[in-house]
Amino acid sequence: MIDLAIIGAGTTGISTAIEAKNLGIQKIVLFEKGDSHSMTIRKFYKDGKRVDKDYKGQEVTLEGSIDFQDGNKESTLELFESLITSHQLDLRLHTDIEKVEKKDNGFEITSSGGETFMARFAVIAIGKMGQPNKPSYPIPLPIRSLVNFNANSVKSDEKLLIVGGGNSAVEYAYDLCKTNPTTLNYRRTEFARINDTNAEELQKVIASGELQTKLGVDIVGLSNEDGKVGVEFTDGEKIIYDRVIYAIGGATPLDFLQKCKLELDDSQTPKSSEIYETSITGLFIAGDIALSSGGSIAIGLNHGYKIAQEIAKRLKL
Ligand SMILES: Cc1cc2nc3c(=O)[nH]c(=O)nc-3n(C[C@H](O)[C@H](O)[C@H](O)COP(=O)(O)OP(=O)(O)OC[C@H]3O[C@@H](n4cnc5c(N)ncnc54)[C@H](O)[C@@H]3O)c2cc1C
Known about the structure:
Elements: E1 2-7, H1 11-22, E2 28-31, H2 39-44, E3 50-51, E4 71-72, H3 73-86, E5 90-92, E6 97-103, E7 106-111, E8 116-124, E9 147-148, E10 160-163, H4 167-176, E11 182-186, H5 196-207, E12 211-215, E13 219-225, E14 228-233, E15 238-241, E16 243-246, H6 254-259, E17 283-285, H7 297-314
Parallel strand pairs: 1-2, 1-8, 2-5, 8-17, 9-16, 10-11, 10-16, 11-12
Antiparallel strand pairs: 3-4, 6-7, 7-8, 13-14, 14-15
Helix pairs in contact: 1-7, 4-5
Bound molecules: flavin-adenine dinucleotide.
């Protein structure tokens, strides 16, 4: 019997485990489907990306023990790597959890490989980036490899279209335009959701002519143009790109939540109390997946701290 099972070894899951360990909780297991921890950072942050503690202007006072500060992708991964090592966390990689079910004596946790584990308490911290949002129109099969949801496959000099109006899209755009002919497409004309630093960087590259923009227009559809991506816009223009990157956020993994029998609200977010306990006693939800929108590393760290305190209290530690 595990005392505390944590599903997802992103920054929230890791923080929950660290805080729980600090409070004396003994048997903690961290399940991660990827081949390492912090898969969202590894997959979706460009190398060298600046990482802001107060992401999107959301000022957070850290409550727990983790000294997370502004840095970059590499320093952030290093911080969480060193925390896992120094706290000797039991991290089970390549373990894709399919569901968490309440049983008489705790929770049964089932992996897609058919393994089961029993735990007294469980925390779901699976984030939302396992399923990046996709456009509503079809992506023709021959060009699927050229239509991406992160910047990992970009080759130098490829003509790129970045789609989106949030911080991720803007960060991709102002970085990639230094190495590639790049256009940023957003359906609105104003970037209302980005932080001040990104707004400044964006202005610079637009003013210098390094970044092209196509604002206030949407995309109608994509076509295969001799192995390149044809993009048709609502203004009637059709432009051919080598690669298109959608940075339009992530979707709640509904399947998982339904299999766990969690009650959801109108925005498909699991209902939870002020201590992040779901509609099922002893089952907590933390980090991006606990929120209808927004979320940041620091917010997830505080969720982990609060949940660990509550579980330690219930275990009478
Ligand atoms: C491009 C981009 C830039 C960003 N920049 C910043 C920034 O500068 N500062 C900031 O504070 N925030 C930033 N964010 C937001 C930040 O990354 C998230 O808020 C944070 O990662 C949320 O942490 P989490 O642990 O809740 O979820 P995640 O980081 O998404 O971690 C979830 C983990 O769970 C694993 N998992 C998923 N499903 C399962 C399953 N079924 N079984 C087992 N494991 C599973 C995943 O592989 C992953 O490792 C950015 C996000 C993006 C996409």
